[in-house]
Amino acid sequence: MSQPTPPRRTPKFRQRSAKMAELVARQIVEDIVDRQLPPGASLPSEAPMLEMYGVARGTLREALRILENNGLVRVRPGRGGGPVVGAADPYNFGRTLTLFLQMGRTRFWELVEARVIMEPMMARLAAERRDKDRLAELAKAMEAHKGLGTDDQAAYLSVVQDFHGVVAGMSGNGVLDLFGRALKEVYTERVIAAERPPARWAEVRREHEAVAQAIFDGNGADAEELMRAHMRELAAGFERNYAALHAEIIGW
Questions:
Q1: Which residue in 28, 38, 176, 233 is deepest, having the highest Cβ count within 10 Å?
Q2: Torsions phi, psi of 200, nearest 5?
Q3: pLDDT digits (tens, 9 = 90+) for 137-165
Q4: How many CB atoms lie within 10 A of CB 63?
């Protein structure tokens, strides 16, 4: 039994002018949000979408391509394929962000400085808001610290950066969360490429544990100060171990 065709949606013209494909892309995202579709959910096939948005096939395909390039939609090829909902992934956002940072001739030290400024405030918010589910995530992240050595650079960075990602999510602020995780992803990807051995692992673990305990205790002031001290040490370590990256322009 065929499903009813969804009602036609007229793309909304917002404050800035845009091509029709961009307007359709924005309307698709709005529909995804309005319908609360989770990542992986199927979107209508091409024929119903053409009817919904009242546009030509080329315009619809360009709109989907815009979203696919940003990871917000995935188009599965072949029989039974079609568009599915993606996710607001910090990695994809970070890659898009690097295009603007590169065009702005932003240096890598500026990214490090931004993290030093942002992450203490996120730690404070995490402690003050103490979401129950997020606290469980933090406990799991801290469990991953135990027994981790320094012989595997990728594993070391994964555990360390997961901690920072969890704290960003615990801030309860979607803007800080997305930007914090995106900057973390850009930093981690470049540091891994530099192929330096991890340093200060024992100290890093102790600093993470102190920040985590302050969050568990709901002590925002301590969480902020401990994270600031930790991030300043990260910045100092960056200067010591990755001096060649200091003035490097962030690249896509």
A1: 28
A2: 60, 30
A3: 999 999 999 877 767 777 787 888 899 99
A4: 27
Average model confidence (pLDDT) across the chain:
88
Angle of helix 108-129 versus helix 220-241 axis, rounded to 10? 160
Residue reference for tokens 């568990």: 216
| pLDDT value for 150 | 66
CATH architecture of 20-85: Orthogonal Bundle (1.10)
Token pair in block for residue 121: 């405030």
Structure tokens at 95: 């890659």
Distance CA 136, CA 76 (A): 34
Sign of the C-alpha dihedral computed for residues 229, 231, 234 and 236 taken in this order: negative
> What is the H or E stretch that residue 26 is in?
helix 20-34
CA dihedral 26, 32, 38, 44 (to 10 degrees): -110
Angle CA 119–207–192, to nearest 5: 70
What is the residue-wise DSSP string for 109-149?
HHHHHHHHHHHHHHHHHHHHH--HHHHHHHHHHHHHHTT--
- For residue 252 the two structure tokens come to 């896509």
Amino acid letter, 204: V
Coil, strand or helix at 108:
helix
**Residue that is written with structure tokens 């530099």 in the block:** 194
- Residue 4 confidence (pLDDT): 53
Instruction: Count H helices and E strands in the chain, helices first.
Output: 10, 2
Task: Provide CATH code, domain 90-245.
Answer: 1.20.120.530
> What pairs with residue 74 in β-bridges?
84
Contact between 135 and 216 (Cβ < 8 Å): yes
Listed by start position, the domains of the chain span 20-85, 90-245
